[in-house]
Write a structure and sequence with these properties.
Helix content: 55-70%
CATH topology of the largest domain: Heat Shock Protein 90
Structural class: alpha+beta
Order of helices and strands: HHHHHHHHEHEEHHEE
Number of helices: 11
Distance between the termini: 64 Å
Largest sheet: 5 strands, mixed
Number of domains: 3
Shape: elongated
Number of strands: 5
Radius of gyration: 35 Å
Strand order of the largest sheet: 1-2-3-5-4
Length: 339
Amino acid sequence: MVVGWLRGRPIMEKILIANAIVILIGAIGGTYFTRRLEGQSGVALTLIFLASGLGITILANWLVLRATFRPLVEISRAMESIHKGELHQRVADKSSDPVLRSLSQSFNEMLVRLENESRQYSTRLFDSIEEERRRIGRELHDETSQTLAAVLISLDLAEKALSRCGPPEVVQRVATSKSLISHTIEQLKLLVYDLRPVMLDDFGLVPALRWYIQSHLEGVGPTIVTEFDDEGQRLPGNVETGLYRIAQDTLTNAVRHAQASKVVVRLETKSGFASLAVIDNGVGFDPGEAIYRGNHRGLGLLSVKERVELLDGTLNIESAPGRGTRVYVVIPLAQGRQS
């Protein structure tokens, strides 16, 4: 009955009541045993009462504080997880102490607010990045590329004029300049497509991924094996953009860091979800350590993690040193949102 009554009391009251009960029991017990053990050594009785009182006090306070401070331990663990970027952590607010229960509830409300603010910030950030990519791509295509094309035409006319009566070395220099500008224009086209692939907007995710793999990855590293669903099926724009950037980051990690000889890219679209898997047979790594330390691979994985969370998807990374890496992404699709 007393224990049940104490459960709903604030921590300070619990400690004061527990210690008051210990003192009361000590006073009654001390008086009783002093009369029963009259004639015994005073020093021995003092040591016995001191040891008994100290033991009972420590036990009573431990019993009171053990359950009371359990929510603080959970909050500490949750903060460690949050420090690693796991904002979905929550603390159980089942403490019998009203003050600590209120603390747990406030902590959970703070986490919800932080998660919502982080999601909104990430959404604005990725949207602004894509918009800036589009803007830079348009400027490079409409301004810089056109200017270089005009210079190339001028050099071509100059080469034709010089070929009749000009010094051979000058003609050769003009021809070399033409070759350099032509190469620059081709590289600029790749840069524009990298910033925002027109193919992604016009034809969809699968053609854009095929183009990226063929133009950037074939012949420069591991063998890339693609297993894609029907190319004609379209997904919502934000899903296609997110999966494309996720595939880019994971493939970049595999090519640059995995030291793999083979990478498999698998994309499936089913009723209600789309899944992406990137599997390599490389050296592997510790995913938690990479993300926590924030190295080059970890930054790419952190970007992948944020994009998956913004799409309400799930990310599963299976890897270990010497065992390759398997990245699985599943994105839910609302009914009627598949094209």
